[in-house]
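REVIEWER CHECKLIST
Item 1: Sequence provided? yes
Item 2: Single chain? yes
Item 3: Sequence as submitted:
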Amino acid sequence: MDDDLLRRAKANDENAMYELARTYVSRAVAEKNMALFDEAVVWMENAAERNHVEAQFETSVIYGKKGDDDKCIYWTKKAAASGHKKAKLVIQELEKNDKTSTTQTTNKSDAGYIALGSLFIIVVMVAGYIFWGIVGILVPLIGILGGVFYLGNYKLDIVDKIKFGLTGTMVYIGVAIVYVFEEIILPLIRSIYREFRR
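Item 4: Structure as written out by the authors:
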């Protein structure tokens, strides 16, 4: 071991800390000595904490091999922020994977919502046709068309359009309930009442 290197490392020289860590790593591999490797990690992280860019990236690699994802990502981000090219590429790849994962999850959720929303609208329109004929499908149809155009804003995603369509459908349901009560249930109650009075 170079005494001068050790002295400078102990004097908080980040370059000496980095070189000392690499020396310990080489010895640990050659001698298959984990104690030396642990010592290397300490010096490497000390150098990283003092903004040694290579030490930051190599510390991230060490923690990655140890399975400590949080520290691995932390030091990779630090190295990337310090301008390390490989670290920047790693972070870009991680962000790309995160976006892909989020998009896939969102797409699955949106697909389910669209399927249920569309089925609901179809059922209501069929029910409207049964009760009111062709007029019965106009209100939910207007709601759906309103969702598609949404005051001229064509940039809305399909989920927002379906939601707007559902709003029109709910209006239709309210009108339908009033209609059913006045045209079917109320006359039926009156008829039953008249029968009892006889």
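Item 5: Key structural point noted by reviewer: The chain has eight helices and no strands.
Item 6: Recommendation: ____
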